[in-house]
Specification:
Ribosomal Protein L15, Chain: K, domain 2, 5 strands, 42% helix, globular, five-stranded parallel beta sheet, 120 residues, 5 helices
Length: 120
């Protein structure tokens, strides 16, 4: 599947912007995320809060090239960027003192991709 096969104009725009960001800032992470988003949606990452809890440290910033789901408990203050998140996941991230951002917002905040890990 390629970007031409995608029908969601917001997703197509995001993929193109991430690739531009990667070229401009020499930030491989944004190209990697863009390539993962080009895959069929059925192959996108679905990450539960319990996985985030297990694999991140307090204050970390992660990006999920897919969806964050609300199963599990999160008690660490982390910044999570994702294409989508369930309402319960967003609430839990906020209640733990963290922040949920769309991938585009995270890329604008950290254009060089430094100190960001991909989870999923």
């Amino acid at each position: 599947m390629t970007i031409e096969d995608k029908t969601n104009p917001n997703l197509v725009s995001l993929i193109e912007d991430l690739k531009d960001q990667a070229r401009k800032n020499d930030a491989f992470i944004w190209r990697d995320v863009a390539e993962r988003l080009e895959r069929p949606m059925k192959n996108w990452a679905e990450v539960n809060l319990s996985k985030i809890q297990r694999h991140v440290e307090e204050g970390d910033t992660i990006v999920v090239p897919g969806k964050v789901l609300g199963a599990g408990v999160l008690d660490k203050e982390v910044t999570v960027g994702a294409f989508k998140a369930s309402r319960s996941a967003k609430e839990s991230i906020s209640e733990a003192g963290g922040e949920y951002l769309k991938i585009r917002e995270l890329a604008e905040r950290k254009p060089d991709g430094s100190e960001i890990r991909i989870l999923g």
